[in-house]
Specification:
It comes from Batillaria attramentaria. Residues 559-598 are annotated as: Disordered. Residues 651-739 form the Clathrin adaptor alpha/beta/gamma-adaptin appendage Ig-like subdomain domain. It is found in: Membrane, Coated pit. The chain contains 35 helices and 18 strands. By secondary structure, it is of the alpha+beta class. The protein starts with 10 loop residues before the first helix and ends with a helix.
Amino acid sequence: VKFKGDKTLDGYQKKKYVCKLLFIFLLGHDIDFGHMEAVNLLSSNKYTEKQIGYLFISVLVGASSELMKLVIQSIKNDLMSRNPVHINLALHCMANIGSREMADALGQDIPKLLVSGDTIDAVKQSAALTLLRLLRASPDVIPMGEWTSRIIHLLNDQHMGVVTSATSLIEALVKKNPEEYKGCVSLAVSRLSRIVTSSYTDLQDYTYYFVPAPWLSNYPPPEDPSVRTRLTECLETILNKAQEPPKSKKVQHSNAKNAVLFEAINLIIHMDSDPNLLVRACNQLGQFLQHKETNLRYLALESMCLLATSEFSHEAVKKHQDTVITALKTERDVSVRQRAVDLLYAMCDRSNAEEIVGEMLEYLETADYSIREEMVLKVAILAEKYAVDYTWYVDVILNLIRIAGDYVSEEVWYRVIQIVINRDDVQGYAAKTVFEALQAPACHENMVKVGGYILGEFGNLIAGDPRSSPNTRGLLLSTYIKFINLFPEIKQNIQDVLRSDNNLRNPDVELQQRAIEYLQLSTITSADVLATVLEEMPPFPERESSILAKLKKKKPTTVENAAVEGKEHKMPAVQVSGGSDGPALQVPVTPPGGGSADLLGLDAQPSAPASSGGAASSFLLDVFGDAAPTPPTTNGLDAGGLTAGAEENLKKFICKHNGVLYENDLIQIGVKSEYRQNLARVGVQLSTQPKPVESEVDGGAQVQQLFNIECVTEFTDSPVLDISFVSGGAPHRISLKLPVFINKFMEAAEMNAEAFFQRWKALSQPGQECQKIFKLLGFGVSILEGIDPNPDNFVSSAIVHTRNQQIGCLVRLEPNRQAEMYRLTVRSTKDSVAQTVSSLLETQF
């Protein structure tokens, strides 16, 4: 309103209102007016008005503003004036905006101000820094050759402020054109000497807490011997002063003193030409490695990394190896530990490579996650670069994969394979070592990759290794025959291995037989037949447990045991008689191949000796076989087609693996199961019910059937088992749900409170949660301790393993003791899993 009113505003009022607008803008509000009034203030001859105008322009007016031409004209007018205050205000505005348009319009005027003898020191300082700002916006603002000599000679100016400002400008110009400004080196060394040496008093007022504050150049060592000697004397003086007792206990004094020292050491490293200076610098830094100040330890490690790269100071740095290793293990600050790793990497050579690599591997097991990947690369490079014995290199890389497999990039394990392929002397050792590494219960994927490749190429080298047992060599021969199926292009190479005398004429009969049979199999069979014979093994190979076999010998004879033991029971069926009145049971028995009894050996009913009772076969049980010709009796099936009365027993299996699933007057069905991640083995045992006759009780015969089950994806309904049999000439049928539930494929997952509730909150989408509230009747649950802030609550976590994926599941149980109620909440990444687990748990309360 004031700006648009009829009343003309004087300079003071304009300044006041523009200043208020500037304050409003700094509070965060947008200002879209008052710009022209601020430009008008630039033409005022009063300092305060011009100052507010330039301040407003610097803060609110952008380089692309339409008013910029007016602003540039006002700046040009002030630069041409003889008032140093106005010139300084104009220079400050240029330095703040620093646009290319300004550089093009005013760039030629600034160097004139900088080198003019009439310009006061304060304006020279501002001109140097303004020119530096314009140089960054427009690199060609200073023409080559025209101003070079005069700008360089600013280093001889008596005013230290002018010298430091000119130094910043010269530093930028040097990087752009080193040859053009090479003449500044001798002047810089001379000025440095005058600052450091106490015999000169003209610049001793430029000190900070008793420490002269020198600046240093970016050039290589001077070629002029006299200049070089003078520079060396300066650096020696700084190192000598670092050893002197402090002149003040204040922290500013030590900070300034150390800042100068580290700059001097950086220059010594940059020169890299004076062995004496480099060693002295290394010794000085060594004193800082155990300093109480973390920053000094960090800077010392960082500078020593540079010293370690010099041939003159490398050995001096190595003397501090133990101190650096201690720092790696004990430092609390991860950035300092990072610098310690860098220094160990820099100081490593053939003489200490094994020790340093060993220490880095040891630390890698507990290293901060942010530096693991870099450490892995450093260890791999050192092991390859300084490996004298390449068996050591193989050991290092395999240990690296074992300790930090997730951080081992493809380049690392590619490289170890390349080296093993190129070096014949290490191939056998690598095959042996990687084979042993693959025997570990938990083996990283990268280890499997390396092992698969190396064994595929050089497995034959350890197949005949006398250090390998016959069992191991036999396993490798089996590996080779499978390789023929998987990689037909190497068939000829593998056949050459099988034909070798070491295999075909091996004194070990097993190895000889395998070699002969595998060779014939690969020679005479077609690809289709070979693929069928060598198809993938089932997840749970059936094998006889020696402990279980011993246990069976102590048990009464059953149908299954009789078939396995193969004693006098050689008949295809066994008859068990319960007496003259009792029914007889005839069960077809197939001897198990390979011992299906590895599935826990289901508890047997006591059995009477087999006899050839004359009751014929009035009770015939054909388990899992063809149905009888007549339709089976379906009495007792519910609406869902399942046998009634089995539901209660089924619920008991939710939290246990073994027990009786169904029982009636004719038959008892028992179940025993094993689970591992997404795989299961379920044994179903069928027994006839014994019938007591007078003083004798005859045991029922038994038969067992094994099922291998794999959880492919999440499911809600259990698989159904149909059993058809004939009893008393009448067919019967029993349909039951197998006790295979989704929770059987769960594996407990450990996590802390933060991780639990982070995932708990993440699983809050519709369908990912299922909640139940029910009466407390009793419970039994595996819980995570100390997770929920309410100690009365129970929480647990698990992973559901399926072939296709792994599904996370979180459970929270919250009691209400007053109401004797429980609230159960289940969250999962799959809505069906949450519903199913919730329903299963509800049945247990």
